[in-house]
Design a protein that fits this description.
single chain, mainly alpha, 3-stranded antiparallel beta sheet, 17 helices
Length: 495
């Protein structure tokens, strides 16, 4: 690797400085990254820009670049994999195999010396990342994946390039628990990467920081005010909060080897809402808690707190069958392109049983909503969005940037369907929150929000209001400028 890679510093605020909501607290460079195979021809292999003007590597025809300059810079990584990708062009390894191979090659060529500073004095090397060595060795799923990965890496990299088993287990563990998903300007996932300094952030189900990307770099901004920057109090979200406590905690342990004990996971009321059904007795629409799974040691007999009617065993069985099917189908569904017919079938099955705030109902509606947005079904998208507004607001929180992204899509649907006033209201609520979370220059702010907002000018009353506001703003600016001009005093003597 080139010498200038040996030491670099993430752009962060100094520790002793207070921070405000929206402040950029880290801008971390990638140690290694890969683009998912299904998106490989859509993003530059070095700068990660998305453009239609990409050209493939002339040797392997697998990696794509936006310019000769990016191709030259990308060769630092690509030179170790180019021949292998050309040799295996008919059976390209998975994205995770390619990421592991890139990291192994980098470590063999001086990557272990790289230190990324996250403040004036503290930094992280690859070896500083948690590897969960003992957890990986005793975890059946992880052990099976390691056994599956080694022969694939051997075929891809060659036996001579593979580290010994103990070293490989340490590399695997570090990559498994510290990698980030890569998001583009529209917040769609297209790859994964390892960031040394950014790996310092721990998890909270309701985080106080937000992740976005600027080219290759991961940017993390604060969602709160702090008297003094303290990384021990800053958290990002590893998993989607629109998921039951039991499923979320199991997912966190399976992927990161820890049991979450945050306030959200300990919230008894939230847990009961997550797994609630509609009572349904004589038109009673009260929500009733039913445990997600049956526990023979602690049998629970659900009963409506309003009409005091016990929930029938048949309804309990139906609920658990619906939840099982919903979890199974959504687990295998792509969040980038959800299957709308499957979502519709799930919603019909959930019918009048799941409460509107039931977490699996909310999650299914969100998948259906996104499927409609991605496919331009704006009328149905608006219907699903309106149905799910309260659910999304409850699980994310009104100030959460992800809820604001939901509002942007819902506002877009309403404006497209000529419901300008409601659409603009959603955008006005979302804009300041997203500005804090993504930065004022993020494409969602400067391009997407503005272009959607301009469509509302078709409504004459909105257009006139905006024209008047602009005139008032200009008048105020002119008045302020007039106060700043030096005053000329006339000194007239009496005759």
């Amino acid at each position: 690797m080139r010498d200038y890679y040996i030491r670099f510093q993430a752009k962060t605020l100094l520790n002793k400085r207070p921070i405000s909501k929206g402040d950029l607290i880290m801008n971390s460079e990638p140690f290694a990254f890969v683009i998912n195979s299904n998106h490989i021809s859509e993003y530059c292999g070095y700068c990660l820009s998305r453009t239609t003007l990409l050209k493939p590597c002339k040797k392997c025809r697998f990696q794509w670049y936006c310019s000769p300059g990016c191709e030259r810079l990308g060769w630092d990584f690509h030179k170790y994999e180019c021949a292998n990708l050309k040799r295996m062009q008919n059976e390209v390894p998975t994205s995770f195999v390619r990421l592991l191979a890139r990291i192994i090659f980098k470590l063999q060529n001086g990557g272990g010396k790289i230190v990324e500073k996250y403040n004036g004095k503290d930094g992280r090397r690859f070896r500083d990342l948690m590897n969960h060595y003992a957890d990986v060795k005793k975890d059946e799923e992880a052990t099976k994946e390691v056994e599956d990965l080694i022969p694939k890496l051997k075929t891809y990299m060659g036996q001579d390039n593979l580290p010994n088993f103990a070293d490989f287990l340490g590399i695997y563990g570090r990559v498994l628990v510290n990698r980030f998903c890569l998001f583009d300007d529209t917040m769609m996932t297209f790859g994964s990467g390892l960031y040394l300094a950014a790996s310092i952030f721990d998890h909270a189900c309701i985080p106080n920081c937000y992740i976005s990307f600027s080219g290759r770099n991961v940017q993390i901004r604060s969602l709160i005010d702090m008297k003094e920057l303290d990384y021990n109090k800053l958290r990002i979200g590893y998993v989607d909060p629109v998921c039951s406590v039991a499923s979320r905690k199991a997912d966190l342990y399976r992927r990161w080897f820890f049991w979450c004990d945050c306030k959200t996971c300990a919230d008894k009321e939230r847990k009961e809402i997550e797994n609630s059904v509609i009572c349904g007795t004589d038109g009673c629409d009260a929500k009733v808690y039913i445990p997600e799974e049956f526990d023979p040691e602690n049998p629970y007999e659900p009963k409506c707190g309003v009409c005091e009617t016990p929930v029938s065993a048949k309804r309990v069985r139906s609920y658990r069958e619906i939840v099982f099917t919903t979890k199974k189908i959504l687990k295998d569904m792509s969040e980038e392109n959800p299957n709308l017919p499957d979502c519709v079938d799930l919603l019909e099955m959930q019918g009048e049983i799941l409460h509107p705030l039931n977490v699996w109902r909310v999650r299914t509606l969100d998948f259906a909503f996104n499927a409609c947005v991605f496919n331009g079904c704006w009328s149905r998208a608006m219907d699903y969005g309106d149905m799910n507004y309260e659910g999304m607001r409850y699980y994310y929180g009104a100030e959460n940037p992800t809820f604001s992204l939901f509002l942007v899509k819902l506002g877009k649907a309403k404006i497209y369907l000529k419901e300008f006033r409601e659409g603009v209201t959603h955008l006005e609520v979302a804009e300041p929150i997203l500005t804090d979370a993504l930065g004022a220059q993020h494409p969602i702010i400067v391009d997407h929000l503005i272009s959607i907002n301009n469509l509302a000018n078709e409504d004459l009353s909105i257009r006139l209001e905006r024209t008047e506001k602009m005139k008032m703003k200009e008048d105020l600016q002119n008045w302020v400028m007039s106060l700043a001009r030096p005053q000329v005093r006339l000194n007239i003597k009496a005759a």
